[in-house]
Amino acid sequence: MALLPLSLHWFCIDLAAKRRRYRPCEAIIHNKLCFTRGVLVLHVSAVVETVLAAVLAVLLAYPRWTFSLRSCRVQRLSDWYTMLHNPNPNYEHTLHCTQEAVYPLYTIVFVYYSLCLVFLLLVRPILADKCLPVRGKTSIYAAMYLLPILALLHAVSAGLLYYSFPYITIILSVISSAAHFAFQLDQSMKSLVVTTLRNVRNLVILFGHWMFHAYGIVAVAELRQLPFRVAFLALVPLPVVFYIVTARFTDPSKFHLE
Fold it and tell me: Which end of the chain is more exposed for a tag (fewer CB within 10 A), N or C?
């Protein structure tokens, strides 16, 4: 859940940048987006905002002002939903006395989202006004809608996400990476490689997908038998390589109706 705000910030910034009218440049001639310094500044700002929010959220949790967390071990899914297990003596009145069994794993996410919103409103408007004057505000408005939605999602499905987030991260990174390459007009192997290496925006998106994919692999491995598990990180570029190699076999123009 901590990675979702960052990935959504990047997506909203990139989407807002596409709608902006840039000055003529070589990228526009080839129908591509100019990845300007202002867009890069907003991407870096999103990283700084989320990192500061994460660090401060950990420092505010018990024991405070330390980078260590004390929590009861999660044993089952119901530990995340203690409010559904309030005692009901004699089936007459429900006693609302349950507390968070997995503290601070549940509440720390809400603190993190709140801090993300605070840093967003403190930092992003100033940078957006200077770097992306018109469309930069769109990413701010989108984040103000997305953060409450993420908080609601965490409140309802925190337990499910706790057990499944590594696999969700891997699957979404693969799907998102394939979708990014699918939007390229020229699906030849040479064009996909050249446009990825020469376009700064494509490189940033590629390394972002690799970062999330590597995080999912490490989360699944849980750092057990570290030398053996680290070898799986070599599989991070595999989805991209597989798409580039097999894209020519899925070209619709090569399918003929008989």
Answer: C
